[in-house]
Amino acid sequence: MRDYFLDPITKTQDAESFFFCLHQDGLLFHPEDDPAIVINDQGQLFNDDEVRALRQRIDEAYEFMDDPCDFILSMTAPDFRR
Questions:
Q1: 40 forms bridges with which residues in the sheet?
Q2: Does residue 81 belong to any structural domain of this protein?
């Protein structure tokens, strides 16, 4: 399990960093989707422990972001700079 799956999100910057890390690792998924249904060519992308952790992080992110999708869309735009 990746460390950032376990790091609590306690502010907006944490949420942004979480989504950025998912993106950098090729694991980004729509935050309204349950991570348990995210698949790749080999099947379910996340194991049960990761699913539980990701659900928690997504819930926490929504406490600090009205719509994480807005950040994700801006982050994945070609001119985004981190």
A1: 43
A2: no
Decide if 51 contacts 59 (C-beta within 8 A).
no
Predicted local confidence at residue 79, as pLDDT? 65
pLDDT by 10-residue block (mean), the chain, 82 residues: 97 97 95 94 94 98 94 77 57
Whether 34 is covered by a domain: the verdict is yes
Domain count, the chain: 1
CA separation for the pair 46, 58 (Å, rounded) = 14
Helix (H) / strand (E) element for 40: namely strand 39-40
| Token pair belonging to 48 | 């049960």
**C-alpha distances in Å from residue 13, one per residue of 34, 38, 56:** 22, 25, 16
- Give burial (CB, 10 Å; 0-12/13-18/19+) of 57: buried
Query: Does residue 60 fall inside a structural domain?
Result: yes
Domain presence at residue 55: yes
d(CA 9, CA 12): 8
